[in-house]
Amino acid sequence: MSYAVKEIFLTLQGEGVHAGRRAVFVRFAGCNLWSGLERDRATAVCRFCDTDFVGMDGDGGGRFATATDLARAAAETWGSGRESRFVVLTGGEPMLQVDADLIDALHAEGFFIAIESNGTLAVPRAIDWICISPKARSETVQRSGDELKLVWPQQQSDWEDMQNWDFANLLLQPMDARGDDAASQAYLEQAIAFVQAHPKWRLSLQNHKILGLA
Q: Which long-range contacts (CB under 8 A, 24 or more apart) does 197-203 make?
């Protein structure tokens, strides 16, 4: 199997439990919650995505013929030294492409593997850190993992049911209104109020945007 990758880059993880950790991001091209017919995502299930996952034209992107090739590219992006290697598989939807060969190849390069998935496809437990971000109007089949990250607000999200899923951490992340500062501030205030009222949840911010990182 070959792998279509939008971009590979070195940064700090900006969100969730691992926020602030040095990380290689491997962003896969494509998503199963977007038809690709309109750039405004009018036909998408997930209409608030703030990520460009179309094509293979980003820094470090391209088509990788083998899992070993892709794992080596991630290792080269990390640089010298194998201590505390951390890779985040994201998208789009990474589980459209992530397979056992890639997981094994990344582990062979010494990486602790995290994945950020919408949960509509099963995620193998061989991945070290499973973060699921459920999207309203889609079926979440992956209901266990290390981190559930719910973007807020989302109409029709059954957050009460999510509290019964098997996740070690429940995170609420205010939606990025993409240029509408007033709306973004309102979403932040709503998220803070939600967490104050529901202490099982914790607030997650997009620190990479605050810091001006990729």
A: 198/159, 200/163, 200/170, 201/150, 201/170, 201/171, 201/172, 202/169, 202/170, 202/171, 202/172, 203/171, 203/172, 203/173, 203/174
